[in-house]
Amino acid sequence: MDTSASNRRLRVLLTAIGNTTLIPQPEFQRRLVWINKDKVEFIRTVLEGYPFPEIYIAAGKVDTKTGEGAEMLVDGQQRITTLYQYFKGSADLRLPKDLLSYDKLEEEQQVKFLEYKVVVRDLGNMSIEQIKQVFQRINSTSYGLNAMEIHNARYGGEFKKFAEKVSQLDFFDDYRIFTSTDIKRMNDVMYCASLIATVMSTYFNRDSEVEVFLDKFNDEFDAQGDLLRNVEAVLAFIARLNFPPKSRIYKKADFFTLFVELYKLLITAAVDLKAPMVRRELETFFGSVDIVSAGLEDGTVDVERYYKAALQASNDRGNRIARGEIINKTLRAAI
Question: Is the pLDDT of residue 202 over 50?
């Protein structure tokens, strides 16, 4: 692999982003994960003239008729995007009182900012698969990618896109299933990918089967239309249960189990469940679990077993199966 390093003035990179000849977030990149404090400290680094690690770019598509082409930012999107936000005065960037915005800098300071030299390693014209491999290698020793971010670098296909679509449904935002960190690090997508893979197969250990589904349905995923309608139907049923926002059912492990078991009954078995009766059974059961979790009294065998299966190693297959059996039994009591 022939790579070369050189300096580029920051203004050249910012202009390239502005006219879309430099793509800061190719489809295999992870989401932006820097919080505002990270961005502010990095901007200070540049304004004070300190260096930062090299960024990686690669050649993108070329128009053979006009000779115009684009480049992809393989690694460094956090840094360059932050500087672009500062340069453009983006609302996504909140500056403290002691840090002037770009437009309020003295002209000399603006020039110094724009003339800042960035070390750029040019990977040249590589296939997208080679670029993805480089991206993974680079991040294996720097700010670590989590499992879904690695999968995102390898798979950009239909199953991944579907999991992302599910994770963006209003229900998950309305009931605060995911934290802001979950969303930034794509843990929401991994969670939904696991959820979908489970209802399409069975309980598995942690996220071990997600890659299988990402690979199998990378090119085509014909079932996604019906599957999305089914997912929305189950989420709508859960919403009709009208549990308070801080209820245990919205905790990730508990929600995972409830969703899967409701899917089995409502969709797979076409059982006619009535929301008020299901609410009554679940409220009684989870109320007992909460009492046990508070150490106030012992529970029934099922309650004790469920609580232990949700307390530690909650994503292990055995514990998922245990919780599933108990919730299924609870739901069937409402029939």
Answer: yes
